[in-house]
Amino acid sequence: MTSTVSAADRTIRIASRKSQLALVQTHWVRDRLQESHPSHQFDIHTMSTQGDNILDVALAKIGDKGLFTKELEVRMLSGDADFAVHSLKDLPTNLPDGLILGCITEREDPADALVVHEKHQDKQLATLPEGSVVGTSSLRRLAQLRHHYPHLTFKDIRGNLNTRLAKLDDGQYDAIILAVAGLERLGMGDRVHQVIPSDVSLHAVGQGALGIECRDGDPEILELLQAIAHSATTQRCLAERAFLRSLEGGCQVPIGVNTSIEGDQLTLTGMVARLDGQKLIKDSLQGPAADAEKLGEQLANELRNQGATEILEEIFKEIQRGS
Questions:
Q1: Contact of 73 with 16, CB cutoff 8 Å
Q2: Which of 9, 64, 90, 283 is catalytic?
Q3: Mean pLDDT for the stretch of residues 130-149
Q4: What does the alpha-carbon distance between residue 308 and residue 55 come to, in Å, rounded to a whole number?
C-alpha cells in the first residue's frame, strides 16, 4: 500500500493499547514527534487487545501470536491508523504482510526488578525466606529464578502494573517481579527494591525499548519516525530479535538475552531454560554491531548445538498440555 498523501497534509493517527503504561509510552512518542514536526497533528486512538481482556489465564496458555498487538495491526492495515506504539518485547519477531518495524526508540534500563511486600524490606531475592511466594507472569523469569532460587514458590500474576502492585500490597504475594523500565516510566521507580543482575535473570528480547510498527510502503511516515530512532538500541534489539526468531521462540517462552555495544562491537548473551529451572543453557558472542542480525542467528545456532531445541520442544508440549 503506497501513500498518495504527504504526511504534512494529513493528521497522523497513532494506535495504542488503553493500559496506563501503554498510554504513557504513546504520549511520550507523540510528544517527541510533535517537537520534531511542529506543523503536524498527531492523534492517539486507543483500543483493547486480547492480552488486555483475558486476565484469568496464564499468558503462555493463551499463545502469544500478536497477543498485545493484533487489534492495533488490523487498524493499521485497514488504513484507520498510521502507526502503533508497542513495548518492543510484546511485538512478535515475524510481522504480518504489509507491516514493518518502523523504528526503535532509545532503551530504558532493560533489567528485571524485585518488588517486595513491606514485611520484606530488609530482604533481597537471595535472602527471602524459604517458601516465599513470588509473582510473575513470565516463563522466562520463572525458569531463571527457579534455577537460582529453588527454595522459593512461584505463582502466576496477571493484570496491569497497578493491579499487580495492589495484589502484592494486599499480602497475596511476598514479592513480584516487574520490569524496571515500566516502573520508571510510570513514576514508580521507588518501588524497585532490587535490580536483578543479569547473571541471575537475563531480560526479555526488546525489553525497555519501544517499537513503532507501521505500514510498509508509507515513506512519509517512515521518515517522520526517524526523529525518535536510536541507532545503538536498534542494533542491540535487532540482534536480540534475530536470536529469538531463529530459535522459533515467542514472547512467552523462557528465552532471555543481554546486549551491549562498545565501539563498533556488539556482545550478545542468550539463554534458554527448562520451565523447572533444572537445565539452563547460556552462551555469548561478540562481533560487529553492523552485523547485529547475523550475530543473533549465529548465537541461536550455538545454543541449538548445546541442546536448546530439545528444551524448547519439551516446553511447547508442556504448554499444549496446559501444565
A1: no
A2: 90
A3: 95
A4: 30
